[in-house]
Amino acid sequence: MASRPVLRFAPSPNGRLHLGHAYSALFTWAAAEALGGVTLLRIEDIDTARCKPEFDAAIIEDLQWLGLSWPEPVLRQSSRFPAYAAAADRLKATGLLYPCFCTRKEVAERAAGVDPDGKPLYPGTCRNLSPEKRADLMAQGHPHQWRLRTNEALALAGPLTMTSFDLTGERSERQVRPQDWGDAVIVRKDTPTSYHLAVTVDDAFQGVTHVTRGMDLYRATDLHRLLQALLDLPAPLYCHHKLMADEGDLKLSKSRGSAGLKDLRAAGWTSDEVRRRLGF
């Protein structure tokens, strides 16, 4: 598998797949075909509270209905927590991670602007707590997450770039700005990782050479490139595709109740109709 391009489709089993997921899946399989590569299926289920076995099974059902297949076994991130913890421990050993005891409300109240996702930018409240204060708070059982000292990490890694590709074979490069994320959360309070850490570790573990995903994750790549440099991991090529929108020009979303592929099947849609509508 290492001799040819490796791509991956990595949905989270916290709801049913909708047309936006179908577009992303079909785009990824089309890219793999164009590149002469293979697409892996990865189930990103680190959120053990929201991810459900029935949604995991539904993902398989929906993708098979679309006519897609993949090599077995399917990697599920819930089986990889020790690997994420090891990566986090490596960052902690360098002093690049620190515990943060702030609540979301406190971050919002003291925010130093917004991050690339438009969310409150962490002001660094816990960055310079004394070792004694940190140890005391942790001993008392205060919930905490671990944040990256992003500026220090970037100074260590040096200037970084990401390389984008498209289906015609064209490539382009840009310098990334992980500092725009501030001191990002790398290990969450409720699980020994974050999306950013898990996806970075697993892309390397699975030998992913080309990443396709929506434009909503375009700037997240800046942070992933920094983590790759810090953990001595290879950098894939990236292609960020358009997002599917509803009649109100809003991105399709599970949380907004966008119609699932199961609902479309029940309404009489065929997989060929889905492919035609999405341009495949």
UniProtKB/TrEMBL annotation:
Keyword Aminoacyl-tRNA synthetase attributed: yes
Claim: Hydrolase is one of the keywords in the record: no
InterPro entries listed in its UniProt record: aa-tRNA-synth_I_CS, Glu/Gln-tRNA-synth, Glu/Gln-tRNA-synth_Ib_cat-dom, GluQ/Sye, Rossmann-like_a/b/a_fold
Domain Glutamyl/glutaminyl-tRNA synthetase class Ib catalytic: 7-258
UniProt xrefs under Pfam families: tRNA-synt_1c
Keywords: Aminoacyl-tRNA synthetase, ATP-binding, Ligase, Metal-binding, Nucleotide-binding, Protein biosynthesis, Zinc
Family: Belongs to the class-I aminoacyl-tRNA synthetase family.
Name of the protein in question: tRNA glutamyl-Q(34) synthetase GluQRS
UniProt source species: Devosia nitrariae
Upper lineage: Bacteria, Pseudomonadati, Pseudomonadota, Alphaproteobacteria, Hyphomicrobiales
